[in-house]
Amino acid sequence: MTSLVIGAGVAAIEGVALLAYAAYIAVQVARLGITGPAEVSSPVAVGLEITIFGLLGAAMVVAARGLWRARRWARSLLVVGQFLALVVGVPLATAEGGVERGAGIALVVLAVAGIVAAFWPSTTAAVADS
Asked: Considering the domain boundaries, does residue 24 fall inside one?
C-alpha cells in the first residue's frame, strides 16, 4: 500500500507544479505582456502552452486522487504522465545550465519513482480490486 501512496504523491507533486507553472505563465503574460521566448512570440502559441501545462497538471491531480482511492484507471494516467515527464526530463538532465540540469534530474527521479510505484506488486493488487 505504500507504493500506492508514493504514486499518488508523485502525481500530486507533478500536478501542482504543472498547474503552478501554467498560472505563472498566465500571470506573466497578463502583467508584463510577455509572449514567451523569442522563438515563441505568437499569442496563440503562448495560450496553447498555458493550456497544455494546465491540462497535464489537472490530469496528474486527478491521477493522484484516483490512486489515493485505489482506482485502476488512475494507474494508467500516472504511467502516461511519467513517460511524458521522462521525455522532458532526460534532455533537461543533460543540459549545460545548472537550473535546467537540476530540474531535469528531479523530473527524471520523480518519473522513475512514479513508474516503479505504479507497477509495484502492492499497487497492482490494490487497484485490481477496484
From this structure: yes
The total number of structural domains that make up the chain: 1
Only one residue has cell 549545460, namely 96
Region for 62 from its dihedrals, namely left if φ exceeds 0, alpha if ψ lies in -120 to 50, beta otherwise:
alpha
* Low-confidence residues in the chain, pLDDT < 70: 34-41, 130
Distance CA 21, CA 60 (A): 14
Cell numbers of 43, please? 499569442
Q: Which of 57, 48, 73 is nearest to 21 (CA)?
A: 57
pLDDT at residue 44, rounded to an integer: 80
Using left for φ > 0, alpha for ψ between -120 and 50, and beta otherwise, residue 70 falls in left
Domain interval for residue 90: 2-125
Q: What is the dihedral of CA 119, 13, 78, 71, to 10 degrees?
A: 80
Contact 19, 61 (CB under 8 A): yes
Would residue 107 count as lying in a domain?
Answer: yes
